[in-house]
C-alpha cells in the first residue's frame, strides 16, 4: 500500500509537469505574419486588404512635442500588456515558482504526510497481529490447571502471556519456603505491572509522531502562507501595480502551503484517534492475560499449601 501511494504521487507529479509544459507550448496561438510589401501572398490564401495611408497635417503643437514623450507613452502602454500575461496555476507550477522557504515548507509537509501513512500501515499490521496472538493464547490456557501446564500448552511461543507465566513461575520458585502467600502474590503483581507497562510502550510506539504531525502541520503550513504572501506584497510594491494577474499567482502559491499542511494534519489526527481506540482494546487483553496468570499462581500456591496440610495431618 505504501509503495502504491508513492507511485501515485510520482505519476501525478509527472502528469502535472507534462500538462504545464503542454500549456506553455500552446499559450500563444499560431498566427501567420502579415505579408510584407513586395512579397507575394501564398497560393490559395485570401487577399489581404492593406490600408492606404494618407498624409495628414498635424498641428504645430503636436509637431513641436519632444520625441522622448512619445517614447515614454509607448513604454507605459506596453508595460501593462507584459504584466497581464497569464501564468499556469497548476500545483506543480506553483510549487516550482514558489520561494525557497515556501518550497522547504511544502517538502517538509509532504514528507510528514508520507510518514503518517507509513505509520498507519505498520501499526495496523502490528496491532492486528498482537491482538490475534494474544486472543489465541488466552483461549489455549482456558482449561489449564497450573502455571506449568499453561506454559507447556503455549510451548515456545513468545508473547505477553508467556512473559506473565514465566514471571509467575520465577517468583514462585524464588519464594519457595516462604509461608506468606500474600507476599508472593504482591511481588508477582509488581512483575506483571512492569510487563504491562512494557507492552503498552511497545504498542504505542509511533503514536507520538502522529500527535506531533497532527498538531503542528497546520501551523507550519500557515508559516509558509504568511511568508509567501509577504513576498507577494513585496513584488506588488516593486511592480507598482495591483493587477489581479500579477497578485493572484503569488497568493495562490502561498495558500498551497496551507492546503498541504491540512492534507498532512487531518489524516494524522484521524489515524491517531483510531490507534488510540485500538491500543485501548489491546491493553484490555493484556490485563486479561495478567489476571489469568495471577489466577494460575494462586491455584498453585493453594495447592502447595493444601499438600503441606495433608502431609502434616498424615504425620500426626
Q: How much is the average pLDDT?
A: 74
What's the alpha carbon Rg, rounded to whole Å? Answer: 39 Å
What percentage of the residues does DSSP assign to strands (E)?
under 5%
- Structural shape: rod-shaped
Poorly predicted spans: 1-6, 20-25, 27-86, 308-314
> Total number of β-strand segments?
0
| Class from helix and strand fractions | mainly alpha
Helical residue percent band: over 70%
Q: How many angstroms does the end-to-end distance come to? A: 73 Å
Number of helices: 10
Short description:
The protein is mainly α and 316 residues long.
What does this structure look like?
This protein is 77% helix and 0% strand. Helix 7 runs parallel beside helix 10 (244-315). 21% of the residues are buried. The chain contains 10 helices and no strands. It has helices at 2-25, 60-63, 67-83, 91-96, 100-140, 147-154, 160-174, 181-203, 207-239, 244-315. The chain is an all-alpha fold and 316 residues long. Mean pLDDT is 74; it is low at 1-6, 20-25, 27-86 and 308-314.
List the helices and strands and how they pair.
Elements lengths: L1 H24 L34 H4 L3 H17 L7 H6 L3 H41 L6 H8 L5 H15 L6 H23 L3 H33 L4 H72 L1
